[in-house]
Queue: 3 jobs
Job 1
Amino acid sequence: MAEKVKKTRPELLKQRRALAMFKRFLPTLLLKKQQIQMEIIKVGDQVKKLHEAIETRINEIEQWVSLFSESLPGS
């Protein structure tokens, strides 16, 4: 919810300075936000690839599990 702004000259100057600062830094912050979002997408893709690689390894190993789980003759 918006604050109630005092209608005095010092408050107006304070608000103008704050607005100028926001206008100055907003493009930088938006760019940084976009870079972070792109990095999140990139990391998400890497995680997906790693999960797929793990799943592939598990599928490869499963065929050997039955071989190693057999009891040896004479045991």
Note: DSSP finds one helix and no strands in the chain.
Job 2
Amino acid sequence: MKRFCYGMLVLLLVNSCKKEKNGDSQNPPSGGSGSIAITAAGAPIANAVQVKIGPAGGTIHSSDGKISFSIPAGALDNEQNISLQAIENKAPMGMKNKAYRFQPHGLVFKKPAKLILHYDENDIAGSLPQLVNLATQNAKGQWTRVGNSTVDETSRTISASIHHFSDYAFYESFTMKDSKTGSDTSVIKVRSGETIKLNVVFIEEVAMNDSLFLPIPMPASGYVREWSLNGHASPHPDLNLGGLTGQQGYTNAERDYVAPLKAPNPNSIAASAKLDLGRKGILFLIRNIQVIDINKLTLNGKNYDKAQPSAMFLNNGTWLNLGLVETINATKSAGVTVTIEGIASADPGIYSFSASEKVNILAHDEFGNHWSSKKRNPLTGQISYSGNVEVYVSGNGSARQVFARITGSLFGSDGTVEGTSINAVLDVSGPVF
């Protein structure tokens, strides 16, 4: 079994796009369908694209390149100014940024038009293209399913026919979400020893007034039969892969993934949930995970596995100072320190920096070599640091946590072109003052 697939493996899944009537499953879910969901309309997230299309038909493409919309010949009596705009996806279990507003609102076609989504691995992380459907929102804020979708896995497209203009959104009927990214990335990156929650949710449309309404998503506890890591059933922990555990009060659809203390080799972990859909077959939802070793320092290709992290705010809380240093003996050490201007102690968040006067990086090894980002390349006159600094600050007081990654290269402290490569990952938990 291939470990790194794009989201989910299905075995013996039959008619996956066909709506199953209530009570039609050999293993019906517990709790029944949820209440009909009502949401606000999505706000625009991109500029609208406009084209004129008349009786001869035509095609319009979204600004993000994800959507193609084709109106066939004979669908319109007169030329129309067609507008297509990406909006927030407010649909239950809606795919991130996969919702669109078509105008003129309410325009009806004499022949069905085709809406095509061009998807990639991140779009369907934790799900499967066959479980993606299209919904439209009415004036009450309710969502109804639009027929059946057609999937072409070769061209990676999902298409559906529509008969009038409105707001349309793509959603997933089953998916595995995680507490760190949601479900909008093909790979979840976790720190060594970190715990994240995985949960399987589903939508079972509610039939009413000849329409299928989307309910509030529910845990798929009635469907989930087993959890596994790289094909090995949980809850047995693996020192190399980590473990999947259920806490008190968790349903079958919920598990905690606890990462190992050291990244495995190869660094490819697949957390999967086995679902029994009755006559539709057996379904495996999969999330791919990578583990990032923390408190790890590499200078000029040499690893320092015992480096200790530190973090503190300076200059009245307006500068953040980070350090990762390994003590070799009483007189020798190796490490890196970073001072960043502009990260206030009261501002948790995610920050990213490149070469800048506001970022000062110093590095040294046990042989007396020193490097500095403030030195300038004598050939170009530019700041001699090339790389990136990523910082994640969360919590306050005793719950403060700082996670940072520093990569790139530094020139020598004397300004020569000789330099060092640097790769440092540090994690500091607890009071950071």
Note: The CA atoms of residues 179 and 346 lie 24 Å apart.
Job 3
Amino acid sequence: FVHTTAENWPWHGYVLAAHLLRALNGLLGLGTLLFVYGSGRFLWPDSSTKAVLATALIAFLPQFTFLHGAINNDGLLICLSSATLWQLLRIWYKPLVKPRDLLLLGTTIALAILTKMTGLLLLVLAVMVIVLWWFSRQPSTDLKSSTRIKQLLLLILPVLLISGWLFWRNWTLYGDPTAANQFVILARGDRQYTLRQVWADMDRVWLSLFAVFGWMNVRPPTWVYGVWQGIVLAAAAGGGWVLARSRQRPLTVRSTFLQSPAPWLAAWVGLVLVAWLRFMMQTPADQGRLLFPAILPLALAAAHGLSQLRSRIIPWLAAILALSTTLTSLFFVVPQAYARPRIITTAEIPTTAHLLYEEMAEGLILVAGEANTAVSHPQQLVPFTLYWQATQPLTTAPTVVLKLFGRDQAVLDSQHGYHGRGLYPATLWPQGDAIIVEEVFLRPDAATAVPT
């Protein structure tokens, strides 16, 4: 992402629009948190502890924070999905369902469909929940068949009126009402992955559930993943403890479970997961954000599991550690990844650097270079510092090819890209005595002998 002086304050034009869209996405994230808290209060009306904990886990999730600081449609889909689940919980605990409840629910689902086709799964879930509500909350004799049909129509009608045109458009243009085939075409066709091949990519998906920024190319320190994996394991341990205790009274627990919203909340996670797996088998989609429409039940389950542990300190310790991961990502990881290269003068070039003064392109000189490590090992990053100078304005941004050579001139690694990782191309550099300091990293191949 190239940032120029056009982005300085006061904002105007496309820069102002970008900041407004980012602010809107932030508000959508706040809306998601409110729906998570509200859903938690439906589940646990006697105490707000679990609801607050579930909300905190999402708010302090680095990937959630990053996602809602960028411009995308994921934030809107996550918010609308959470709003739909909140409305379904509200209906579930009501003795009677009013027509306006169903109309509002259908409208929310329609907006989710217009945002992303994942929203269509919400309609499947909503119909399932309404049917379950009939049999779990009302004796079969209390509701006439005509009343049930009317309720389904009140739910489906807004979906058809608001989003139905999109299915017709997609069918007319692409021959697919969901337009999913266009994503497959853009990825050069159906790759026909098996589940085993999808599983091979799950490490990227798992990590990006917690914290992978940029376009899947910026990662925080390893301890950030350790914290979140610890939270998941602790929540799973708490859930296992609940299951172990439930064996002492299986009939009571089974009856309570079936009367609760837990089955269909779990079904929503399953629907999102199955749809994602199907899409992943056709085209690359190994990003955890695609599972975030199901973040509400996942957070509620995690909060419940953590709350079952014997120590009362663990749930809040988890929240504090989660907050530390977000603060680290927000104030250190992301700013450093997108920081511009330093600008110094010729006199400030360290004496340890090797002076080169090689003209690499017209008006572009590589003044010096320095290897910042004395010993290198396979698969270990090798840092270099390059010192560049622009002697005249450049009309086009040149690309740089870097190669790391080992014994017998074997190429250990290579990179090809713009200066400053694309953040600060040479067309923006000042001319004259200004020296651009660029930090680069190369990684030797594990199969190649590395000189030390």
Note: The chain has two domains: 5-336, 343-442.
